[in-house]
Amino acid sequence: MGTAPIALQYGFFYFFAGLAILCAILMVCGRNVVHSAIFLIGSLLATAGIYLQLTAEFLFIVQVILYVGGIMVLFVFVIMLVNLDVASRQRQFNKQVWLAVLLTIVLGGELGLMTHVDGSIFNSVNAPQALPANTNEVATALFQTYMLPFEIASIMLLVAMVGAVLMAKRRGA
Amino acid sequence: MPYLLPVFYGIVIVLVLPLLAGYIVLLERKVMADMQARLGPMRVGPHGLLQPIADALKLLIKEGIIPAQADRWIFLAAPLVSVTMALLAYAALPFGPVFQIADLDIGLLFILAISSLGVYGIVLGGWASNSHFSLLGAMRSAAQLVSYETAAGLALVSALLLGGSLSMKSLVEAQDQAGAWFIFFAPCGFFIYLVASIAETNRAPFDLPEAESELVAGYMTEYSGFRWSLYFLAEYANMIVVAGIATTLFLGGWLRPLASFHGHILGTPIEILDIFPVIVFLGIGGYCFWRAPRQPVQIQKLVMVLFGGLFLVLAMVMFGSLFVPAAMPGIHGAFWFIAKVLVYLYAFLWFRFTFPRYRFDQLMKLGWQFLIPLALTNVLGVGVAQVLRQQLGWNAFAAFGLTLLATMGVAAWLITLGDRRDRLAAAAPAGGD
Amino acid sequence: MTDTHIERVPGVSSTVLGADEIILNMGPQHPSTHGVLRVKLKLDGERVVESECIIGYLHRGVEKIAEHRSYQQFAPYVDRMDYVAAVSNGLGYCEAVEKLLGAEAPIRARVVRTILTELQRIASHLVWLGTHALDIGALTPVFYCFREREEILKIFEKYCGARLTTHAFRIGGLQYETYDGFEEEVKRFCVDFEHKIDEYSTLLTENRIWVGRTKGVGILSAEDAIALGVSGPVLRASGVAWDIRKAMPYAAYDLYKFEIPTAPSGDTYDRYIVRMEEMRQSRLICLQAIENIPAGPIMARIGKVLKPPPGEVYHSIEAPKGELGYYIVSDGSTQPYRVRVRPPSFINLQAFDRMARGSLVADVVAIIGTIDIVLGEVDR
Question: What pLDDT shows up at residue A90?
Fold first, then answer.
């Protein structure tokens, strides 16, 4: 987005950022679990949009494929298959709301103080106008620079998958 | 303004696609009828050519029923999600060297991401129907989609290894440079993608969620009228998308067959093989004119003449563009792309009317226990073949032929393994599942 | 539209899936029950634990009507029971009454009856094949099967004026002579038909998906089959070589050479193989019979008013679906005292529970199709 007019850049950013915050708030405040899941999806997609604005296209697409297309699908499956009648009749809001409000005021006050004292910490660092070809960079990092951690992570995930399947089978049988 | 053309293409896609999907449905009905020794739609328009318009009008004016206890917002939103995802995938699909909305660097990943988002349309539709068995059907459909997405993605990776980039445009250009379509280098990958894409679009023989003679209702059951037609549109748009992906990656995209054969007609700058589109359209137009007098009703004669005229105009466009080198690659490229997509879709239709339906557990077994191991082997094989070719200087035939043999051997072994497992399961008394 | 609903097991939440047994009702209106059959399935997850067939939606009181009609007047009613194979019904009834009268139809009538009945067997099996394949998802064989069946129905129409409820035979023989060109048309059909069966076979027999959907599905052992009184192709596919045409020949079957196909395992695939082979054998019988239809009278001398002596008779034939039996009690008057029909579909349907237990829900449709039932016969 480096060469687009500045107004368009700001517009897109505020759109995505606002959408992300709105969806997050709606997700937390909603009563219906499925609605909350959908708002979480919205929030994740908006975050992906912000990645795209920063010309990190690989990160954008991986966020969509893995987070929204994988993890959230899992969430939604579980929500829909689990007995919801009991959960939906429970009170969704707990009794510690006043403590939460107090903590929010304290946090807000701290942020305000920080901005007042030295607002420059919130200035954006000069992001590059356009990143080099994302996929190649990520691939180089994964398979050349950080090959060993990558392989270890892969094996860990494989072990976790096999273990989960085994545990599910044993429980079912 | 750099955004004008993509926006224009986008608008064209959104307007044209419902009509195109409708005509693909008509094509399916005619092909189905042909395979079943009958004629198909013949009344609405000559040879049923106006049938999609009649169907669209009917669906638009039908009453939309919302189940009483359904979650209203999700019920309304679910088909929209499906259609949006189906249409969004066209953003990265290259219909020709010129007709592409956006040549993303990650074009292929973009389309895969959109396909994986399409699952939500199904799951939410099943959930919102407030019916126990709609939900079950939707879950099954979603599980099927997710399982075959893995196999499809792996099959595409084998083409990526040959192409070297995720951008759809550069994949076609890589096939141009390699001199042959990638299907000749990685036929197993094409075959795996063919099967996986049939499962991805819920087509027979993997259409258990949609079948009416099965017990478990599908996610579309509670939808009627316009909302149902949105799901239907999404399904056929998806079919065209997967056909487009297969064409771009394996069948050479917009390249003419034998693209490197540049034999020219005597004395002219026209290549012999480029006359082919002109001949095709002339042939179809001529056929339309020949059949026009034999139509039973006056209005059908008129419509037949109109269609004949349309094809003649297309033939003239094809011919004229031969002399305009700036426009030729675009227009002829679009022709070849669409022709290949239609061939791929014909295979879809052919399978639907030939094969019975898989049962759900057999479907999942096929996806997980046959296709994914085979796809992994295929990726490995193509990678090895690339190394042999590029670093050790082997002949392309030898390297890829070796890979093909190895992959087919693995496939045969997997099939025997599966059969043996099925036989053992049938012999043993059926315990708890 | 599929009519499915769940009876909520009391005390259990409705959104719990698969944890408890649920009862699934495959309603009387369903594309795959081949008529108005209601099946109640008790499911444990995906498996069928118990099943119950609720019939009677097509009960028309045919047997009661018989008590108030004369023997000839009742003959058209029997066509309406197994309406897919009306000619066989007529054959069974006419032969039963002839047995009661102590008469026998002349040889020419018996041979023509055999030809028409075998053609009807092919037609019935074609309907079975088309609809069974359609249920399992193969959309094309049904059209090919009905195309062939059309030829047979044309022959029937030329012979007796009706395609479906033919009333082709009369008590004592035939009413109509065979029309000009009967032999040629039947022969032409039989000669063409061999290629057509090969066509169906190419589509289905070696097809991995078909085999996967039908092998090992709905197994019925030979002991169970005999104990439940199952007959016809279902029995033969379980390995029992019992065919009334060979065991107790009627009409003109003892004149012709044909085989009785059997199969070892008694699953859906074997029943498919048995019926395909039966179609081939029927074709052979027709070809043999057509070569030489004896000349002679077509009607026995039994008089116009039929008053069989008091007594009872049970006569059964090998209908396409199994053993079709007629138990007729006569009290000496012109109307029977009691006509009891032993419908093959009714008895075979009782094996459904045995076949369906332990199978998956998706297989229930295949099992219903493979028994080959006609509700007109089940309910009468």
Answer: 61
Rounded Cα–Cα distance for residues A140 and B146 (Å): 29
Tokens 């439940």, residue?
C228
DSSP string, B27-49: HHHHHHHHHTTS----TTTGGGT
Q: pLDDT tens digits for B330-358?
A: 888 888 899 999 999 999 999 988 888 88
CB contact at 8 A, C234 and C371: yes
| Interchain proximity C13–A81, CB inside 8 Å | no
Domains and CATH numbers, chain C: 62-379 (1.10.645.10)
* Interface predicted TM-score (ipTM) of this complex, two decimals: 0.85
DSSP string, B85-149: HHHHGGGG--SSSS--S---TTHHHHHHHHHHHHHHHHHHHHHHTT-HHHHHHHHHHHHHHHHHH
Task: Flag whether residue C295 sits within 8 Å of chain A, measured between CB atoms.
Answer: no
- pTM for this entry: 0.87
Most C-contacting residue of B198, B351, B355 (CB-CB within 10 A), to test interface: B355
Q: C210-243 pLDDT, tens per residue?
A: 998 898 888 999 999 999 999 999 999 999 999 9
How close, in Å, is residue A86 to chain C by CA atoms? 9
> Which residue among A61, A70, A81 sits closest to B109, beta carbon to beta carbon?
A61
Can you give the pLDDT at residue C19?
A: 54
| Residues in chain C closer than 8 A to B429 (CB atoms) | 358
A6-92 CATH, one of 3.90.25.10, 1.10.287.4070, 1.10.260.40, 1.20.120.1200:
1.20.120.1200
Residues contacting residue B392 through CB under 8 Å, at least 6 positions apart? none
- Sites in chain B below the pLDDT cut of 70: 1, 212-217, 259-261, 263-269, 426-433
Q: Do A83 and C13 touch (CB under 8 A)?
A: yes
Predicted pLDDT at B433: 38
